[in-house]
Write a sequence for this structure.
């Protein structure tokens, strides 16, 4: 959900295996798979080993990059989680995505598969990979040297290692305990009934006029009522929070447990597993669970003309 993951690593570092092992194929855009859609395997003669390899073609690289760009932006336009399987070794390969990250209000995570890999290990894995995944050893060496020279990622991206990806896909609740009151403003509340916005309180707005007036305040959050508001206007489809030591979710419609579970509860902080769902999924109308795993406030069940004082 508005998260872009760039897998970073030389051939043989374990990127594609990670995607398969964690069942992330439906969310991943693979450069090698696109190359194979554009052209069949070709052959390369490895002179020092006197071996003929069938390999993924490189002559379609330009067309491949164009297709990757098109697919990535198409998914980002719809607020979908995007995983790009590629090397992304040099900083410019990461910077390439910055305009879309800004345009579509995304978080970017660079998943580093090189941090615990040695050159010796990469070369060894390259020799034992599936026959058409093999690349020239010099390519692996060059990428390893480039990574060693530029291990850091741009300031606007988050660098994580593979075992942190599950955490990056989660949504941690916000602690609102420091506020005196939490107030929701439904969509049909009249302007004369708007609450006085005070720094000691926190506000959720489903109301266009209230958002126009106070939406830039740090203690005011606008919640989407429609798919267009969530996808095109970048309003939040839901908000999870802790208030007076209790745990809540607010949204336009009830959100099913299946879209939140498993909920991790560590030291009184709840974290929800929402990262692989699309922004628009949270605005869809489903029958609510008979027993919800978190207490929810839903616009569809509120009096739209009256303020809701959550506490």
């Amino acid at each position: 959900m508005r998260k872009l993951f760039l897998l970073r690593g030389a051939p043989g570092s374990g990127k594609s295996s990670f995607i398969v092992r964690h069942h992330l194929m439906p969310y991943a855009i693979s450069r090698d798979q696109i190359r194979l859609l554009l052209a069949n395997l070709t052959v390369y003669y490895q002179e020092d080993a006197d071996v003929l390899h069938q390999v993924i073609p490189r002559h379609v690289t330009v067309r491949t990059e164009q297709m990757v760009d098109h697919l990535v932006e198409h998914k980002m336009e719809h607020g979908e989680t995007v995983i790009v399987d590629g090397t992304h070794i040099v900083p410019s390969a990461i910077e390439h995505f910055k305009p879309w990250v800004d345009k579509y209000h995304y978080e970017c995570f660079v998943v580093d598969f090189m941090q615990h890999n040695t050159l010796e290990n990469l070369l060894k894995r390259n020799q034992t990979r599936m026959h058409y995944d093999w690349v020239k050893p010099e390519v692996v060496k060059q990428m390893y040297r480039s990574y060693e020279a530029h291990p850091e990622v741009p300031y606007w991206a988050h660098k994580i290692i593979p075992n942190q990806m599950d955490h990056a896909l989660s949504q941690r609740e916000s602690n609102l305990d420091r506020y005196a009151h939490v107030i929701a403003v439904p969509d049909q509340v009249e302007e004369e009934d708007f609450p006085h916005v005070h720094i000691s309180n926190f506000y959720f707005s489903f109301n266009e006029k209230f958002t126009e007036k106070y939406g830039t305040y740090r203690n005011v959050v606008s919640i989407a009522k429609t798919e267009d508001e969530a996808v095109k206007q970048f309003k939040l489809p839901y908000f999870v929070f802790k208030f007076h030591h209790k745990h809540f979710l607010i949204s336009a419609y009830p959100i099913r447990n299946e879209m939140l579970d498993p909920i991790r509860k560590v030291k009184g902080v709840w974290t929800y597993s929402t990262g692989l769902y699309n922004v628009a999924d949270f605005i869809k109308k489903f029958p609510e669970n008979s027993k919800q795993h978190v207490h929810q406030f839903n616009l569809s069940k509120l009096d739209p003309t009256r303020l809701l004082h959550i506490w």
